[in-house]
Specification:
The complex is a heterodimer of chains A (115) and B (115). By secondary structure, chain A is an all-beta fold. Chain A has one domain: Immunoglobulin-like, CATH 2.60.40. Helices cover 0% and strands 52% of the residues of chain A. Chain A contains no helices and eleven strands. Chain A has strands at 4-6, 10-13, 19-25, 31-38, 42-49, 56-57, 64-70, 73-78, 87-94, 105-106, 110-114. Chain B has 115 residues and is mostly beta strands. Chain B has one domain (4-114): Immunoglobulin-like, CATH 2.60.40. Chain B has strands spanning 4-6, 10-14, 19-21, 23-25, 32-38, 44-50, 56-58, 64-68, 73-78, 87-97, 100-105, 109-114. In chain B, the strands form three sheets. In chain B, strands 2, 5, 6, 10, 11 and 12 form a six-stranded mixed beta sheet that branches. A four-stranded antiparallel beta sheet of chain B has the order 3-9-8-7, with no helix packed on it. A two-stranded antiparallel ribbon of chain B has the order 1-4. The chains are: A mainly beta (115), B mainly beta (115). Chains A and B meet through strand 4 and strand 5 of A and strand 5, strand 6, strand 10 and strand 11 of B.
Chain lengths: 115, 115
């Protein structure tokens, strides 16, 4: 079974803090993704990576950055957290970089609250 | 960019009722289509997907979806729902971009099945 783990299930931070969300997958997948999930808006893609050290902006990258130094790990960084970044953050991975029919495997999510 | 529309945000059914959740997408080219499900307290997981061949796709737990190209639709169906089908359902489509594919999700439909 593919396993995608996220460093925290719940996180509470203060406005202006730098926040790191970590994601690790154990199946040698090429693609990794960060989404945020908000009620009524579904999942919105923040960033994705199709290879080590490679990254692509998703639909809502503003206020976020990412890092992928190793194939199995993809980090999401909030440089200066704001209250409108309070959300559920989901990490996902998939096997092939160029295969459109790839299934994504999701982690359990991190519920971030910014006060 | 593509968009995915899910017609209903909330659906309430009694057990044994039939289910149809609507999904329309905007892209006119070759598409790969997915339904993902998130049961309460669980990870988002794949329910079924279409990438080629028979437009009627069967997934887990008795679900199926039909790809109708002329209508840009990929509706999810189940003839008789169970209480355990209570979950949030997301339709998604893959879009080809720089460096690979990314997935566009609909806003989700929350299904509540009354025992």
């Amino acid at each position: 079974d593919v396993k995608v783990t996220q460093s925290s299930r719940y996180l509470v931070k203060r406005t202006g803090e730098k926040v790191f969300l970590e994601c690790v997958q154990d199946m040698d997948h090429e693609n990794m993704f960060w989404y945020r999930q908000d009620p009524g808006l579904g999942l919105r893609l923040i960033y994705f990576s199709y290879d080590v050290k490679m990254k692509e902006k998703g639909d809502i990258p503003e206020g976020y950055s990412v890092s992928r130094e190793k194939k199995e790990r993809f980090s999401l960084i909030l440089e200066s957290a704001s209250t409108n970044q309070t959300s559920m953050y989901l990490c996902a991975s998939s096997l092939f970089a160029l295969a459109g029919a790839d299934t994504q495997y999701f982690g359990p999510g991190t519920r971030l609250t910014v006060l | 960019a593509q968009s995915v529309s899910q017609h209903n945000h909330h659906v309430i059914l009694s057990e044994a009722a039939s289910l149809e959740l609507g999904c329309n997408y905007s892209y006119g080219g070759t598409v790969n289509l997915f339904w993902y499900v998130q049961y309460p307290g669980q990870h988002l997981q794949l329910l079924l997907k279409y990438f080629s061949g028979d437009p009627l796709v069967k997934g887990i737990k008795g679900f199926e979806a039909e790809f109708i190209k002329s209508k840009f639709s990929f509706n999810l169906r189940k003839p008789s729902v169970q209480w355990s089908d209570t979950a949030e359902y997301f339709c998604a489509v893959n879009e080809e971009g720089t460096g690979g594919f990314k997935t566009i999700f609909g806003a989700g439909t929350r299904l509540f099945v009354k025992a």
